[in-house]
Design brief:
Length: 197
Amino acid sequence: MFRRACRLLPLLAAAVILSVFGFASLSSANNQGQERDGANNAQTCDKSCHDRRFSAWDEQWLMMSIEGDLFEIQGGKLAQEKGRLQAVKDLGATLVRDHSKSLQDATKLAEKLGIAVPHEPSPSQQWELRVVAQFSGREFDRWYSDLEVQDHKQDITEAQDEVDKGCNDEVRRDAKDEIPTLREHLKLAQAALDSAR
Ligand SMILES: [Fe+2]
Ligand SMILES: [Fe+2]
């Protein structure tokens, strides 16, 4: 919850600035994100899966990962349209390519395990995309890259948590396989942010 709140702070500040253009509904999106994080933190797992094929933790991570892929794909398309720097456009293209692949793999695994497949990013992610889409030019480059830096830091921590605390081996392997790609994305996002400053 703390991590997500920290990530949202710069965007909240931006939203205050943008509020003259008629922004609303920040709190509901934010609350839903926090509730989800709270549910996550409350879970503990002894890796036995309690005679089930997967734990609540596995289920939560896989669904969050699919929502994350949908978020990255929508954001990446936006960056290709609105980015001014080539580094930002290239970051967007890489995120669309890699997260489309990871979406495919995670969806297949969720269907195999009987886990519900989300069809849109989480409410707070949708809100983040709406906020960042209001910027243009250099401002867009800076806010989008910053969002992706913070997002990927959080994604890496969550994937590592699944590797450490998950029960289902396939879900844990999916999380483990994601980490090098997420680290690469973090590097690209940081480089784009450095160029945009
Ligand atoms: Fe992400
Ligand atoms: Fe990524």
